[in-house]
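Blackboard transcription, Thursday session:
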Amino acid sequence: MAKTKLAKSPWMLHYDGSSCNGCDIEVLACTTPRYDIERFGIINTGDPFQADILLITGGVNFQSESVIKQIYTQMPDPKVVVAVGICACTGGVFKDCYNIKGGIDTVIPVDVYVPGCAARPQAIIDGVVKALEILQQKREAYAAHRRQGKA
Amino acid sequence: MAKQSIVPFGPQHPVLPEPVHLDLVLEDEVVVKAVPSIGFVHRGLEKLVETKDYKEYVYIAERVCGICSFGHGMGYCQCLEKIMDIDIPPRAKYLRTIWMEMSRIHSHLLWLGLLADAMGFESLFMQSWKLREEVLDLFDATTGGRVIFSVNCVGGVLKDMDDSMLKRIVDTVTDMEKELRPIAETFLRDYTVGTRLHGLGMLSAEHAKMMGAVGPMLRASGVSYDARKLGYAAYGDLDFEPVTAADGDSFARCEVRIREIFQSIGLIRQAAAKIPAGPIAVPVKGNPNGEHFMRIEQPRGEAIYYVKANGSKFIERFRLRTPTTSNIPPMLEMLKGCQLADVALLILTIDPCISCTER
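(Written on the board underneath:)
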């Protein structure tokens, strides 16, 4: 029962790695009436300790690197990471900048990549729904691992 | 004297969609001093100009910020047009004006939503953003993008609007005006909003000028200054007066932005009625040589663009001073003496755009 509950009410956390804001406002637009990501039971939270899905926009720069790592470690297991926008996937147009390290996967493991500049709300929702499936699989694997540990 | 303690604010904070860090020095609940540290979104876009073709860089300039993207592309293109002595067709100027004013409407509605969210007024946040989608639909129909448009080019614009599209824009913004009235009424008359915003973060006209505030921040303190009055693009042909409010508190800033949305709707109507027929761009040959400095009014305030070219296809220096950069010193001043619980709301009232600031 706990399994289905988590998959039906995941909490989402959004962090701006070093994006141009375009994807950030599209992520926020997803939570508003037109796209309404909350119909999947998702709540947009500001607290890493309560989040299951991490949406990161923009590439990683040398200052935001440690912040992203910190947020990722603060989130409880199991967790999924969605890289929103082409900058979060590869670095995008900012790839050649001196302060950009690259995509999010240079720092933390990424489960779902959402391309686009800026990523459209439809694409972001699609990415999040894919992330929910991965979250469910991780949850099951995590539960099996714990049962093994107890036995 | 009460004991002093330092509370870190950000970079990841529920109220702000963007990372900014402040060290708040507190005496009990009262902020004594705020020390900002920025750089979490710094990419180094000004440096990138040296390695990109000057025509290609328009796309980078637009990605300085996803909210003011049209204005940044326009400012950069206008600088190059001055350097290369290109006279762009009047239709392109009007199209730029229409898109710029649509950007202003979308930016201000976004801010109103975030403000409501920061106060915990969730339904007002949803209503503002629902209305904002109407403008984004227009952007989608005219440019193909919702937040990043890429319609500016050196020498004009890349896409035209036909008469039916102009009519659709005017009809949509007229409908929006009707839908905006009850939302504006809630912001300006609601008791809860009023108690939260009245008298919060006072900034006198003198102080605002001295600290270098720009845009709605400056106009909310009673200073009638708007860079659109310089008459770039088609603003010289349009009839408007800067929106001001006298009080200089957070409520006045909210009021100025709401009235600016109505003003922008009026400007779009005027521009759509006056737009001349003709080409939308002129061909550009050769490389720029020289330098130019210009100001435009972004939704958040006056932005300054400087381009220095050396005759090759790569630009030597591009400098951009964004409105939030100049609004940070008055914000730090406002934070002194406020309650810890008001800090997030006060930061929001300057309409911070960290991506612009750090580039």
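Lecturer's comment: The first strand of chain A starts at residue 11 and ends at 18.
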